[in-house]
Amino acid sequence: MMEGRGRFITLEGGEATGKSTLARAIDAHLRGAGRQTTLTREPGGTPLAEALRAIVLSPPGEQPSALSQSLIFSAARCDHIEKVIRPALATGRWVLCDRFVDSTEAYQSSAAHEPISSETLGLLNELLPPERPDLTLILDLPLEEARRRIERRKGASDVFEDRDDAYHERVRQAFLRIAEREPERCVVLDAALPPNELADAAIRIIGDRLDRPSGD
Ligand code: TMP
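^ Those are the sequences you sent over. The predicted structure of the assembly is below.
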């Protein structure tokens, strides 16, 4: 990691794993420690990407294919990297992003009914600007607990949350495979922990992996 460059942390996991709550807790901790931070999410983070979020989460007409979805997520991601992530990192900010490329792998390339191939996913990722996370926290939650949480917050349901258990299990397993494949970047956290304990665990990992003076 270059001296002066910020750090790029992504949070990944299935539905109702508590990513956004954890992202806010980490953000508050980093700010408290004197870091400048950018807290953002995908799809989203820029006006264009937020507009694409609204389209892809509630598409007009027939449900788009996994490839069409991947192209929309990638277009939103491209704009987000160019306009938010890259400039933030360049000025030394720590970027905390709720979902990133691993979500496209888990949802469109693994869980989807007709998933895109890993070659197609690779091509899409190659087209994107090169910024990639220094650390990815993967929030893992048993399906029954995720389902309970989704039921409790009824009304927040969108096309992605209306899937069956097998779909959510494929998402979960895909994230675990990513973590196994890239242990130097990814850490799996137990999302069933109480929020404060989950935040403590995440903050410890960030300290160990990114915050040491020798880490530069
Ligand atoms: P969120 O509210 O957890 O951010 O959910 C956004 C939804 O979009 C979630 O169901 C996962 C889905 N998604 C994908 O399918 N592919 C992607 O690349 C991203 C970023 C999100």
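The helical segments are 19-32, 47-57, 66-90, 101-111, 118-127, 143-152, 165-181, 195-210. The longest strand covers residues 8-13.

Shout if you want it in another format.
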